[in-house]
Write a structure and sequence with these properties.
Layout lengths: L6 E5 L15 H10 L4 E4 L11 H15 L5 E4 L5 H13 L4 E4 L10 H12 L7 E5 L1 H4 L5 H11 L3 E6 L4 H9 L6 E4 L5 H7 L3 E4 L2 H16 L3 H18 L4 H11 L16 H12 L2 H4 L5
Parallel strand pairs: 1-2, 1-8, 2-3, 3-4, 4-5, 5-6, 6-7
């Protein structure tokens, strides 16, 4: 993959059966739905896909299923971050071997990264295991606990990591995001990762975005991008407001478990999330459905 990311990349979910075992069969239909809804790429085994709750073997199986389902129509990014750099390297090499288009990784999070040098060294280890693929560092400090200056990382990492292509930037600091975008005359592909702030990211210069809610509301975000590019800021703001309200409703519950319930409402059986993420009760599912049906963005998709 040599082109930069443009448009919406779905951070994909991982399907489980009723017993909580991995069940990759629903992935084919989900990928068809996502592509039809305007998705331009797939980001596999990230936070949304519960990568950190899967075994290394399961992560390999999920990556293979998504690469096969995409069949070259959209790029597939495989997230390989792990507290064990040995396992992360195994996952990265596997992603390259199955024909994935890019590798991405969070930093180790149990033993915290304390310096830019340490982050560069860890990401070099992972990226070097898939030297033929673009590498995107997954910056999500709220989950990794990393306090490393991400602009400093980008300034210094290019020499040590030859295949460093950019970042998945999942934070809310638009000024920092802008610095990353503009660094060295736009050297890096910096992809936005906060769905409820997409409009701000577009205004800052974002060309692509990776997110969870694109699985269920890609057309809304697509219309937002179209309105923004046409200079229709009133419509763009209205669409962002709908996104914010949708995410607020989902956020009343364990977020990813709620998203999997929405997938079920849309006809995709992905099970629920693994512990430590909590499942929704039947009453919570009913309340979620009721609240979502009232929103214009999903009223046509989810019947009462």
């Amino acid at each position: 993959m040599t082109d930069r990311i443009h448009g919406l990349v779905a951070a994909t979910y991982t399907p489980f059966d009723a017993s909580g075992r991995l069940e990759v069969t629903p992935i084919d239909a989900m990928v068809e739905y996502l592509i039809a809804s305007g998705i331009r790429g797939l980001y596999v085994c990230g936070s949304t896909g519960e990568g950190m709750s899967l075994s290394t073997d399961e992560r390999c199986r999920v990556a293979e299923a998504y690469v096969q389902a995409a069949a070259g129509r959209v790029p597939v990014f495989v997230q390989v971050g792990h507290n064990s750099l040995t396992d992360a390297k195994i996952l990265a090499a596997h992603a390259e071997s199955i024909g994935a288009d890019a590798v991405s990784a969070t930093c180790p999070s149990y033993f915290k990264i304390a310096s830019t040098e340490g982050l560069i060294e860890c990401m070099h280890e992972i990226a070097s295991a898939a030297p033929g693929l673009p590498f995107y560092y997954y910056h999500i400090p709220v989950l990794t606990g990393s306090t490393v200056d991400i602009v400093d990382f980008l300034r210094r990492a290019g020499q040590a990591i030859p295949n460093l292509a950019g970042l998945k930037y999942t934070d809310t600091k638009l000024h920092e995001f802008q610095q990353c975008l503009e660094l060295e005359n736009g050297r890096y592909d910096v992809v936005w990762g906060c769905d409820e702030m997409m409009l701000g990211a577009l205004a800052t210069g974002s060309r692509g975005a990776i997110g969870s809610t694109y699985n269920i509301a890609a057309p809304l975000y697509g219309r937002m991008i179209t309105a923004f590019e046409a200079g229709d800021m009133q419509t763009a703001r209205q669409l962002q407001s709908q996104s914010i309200e949708m995410i607020r409703v989902l956020g009343q519950f364990p977020f990813h478990s709620a998203m999997k319930e929405v997938l079920r409402m849309l006809g995709f059986e992905f099970g629920t999330c693994r512990l430590p993420q909590q499942s929704l009760t039947s009453n919570e599912v009913a309340k979620l459905r009721e609240d979502l049906v009232q929103l214009d963005v999903l009223a046509e998709l989810i019947a009462p």
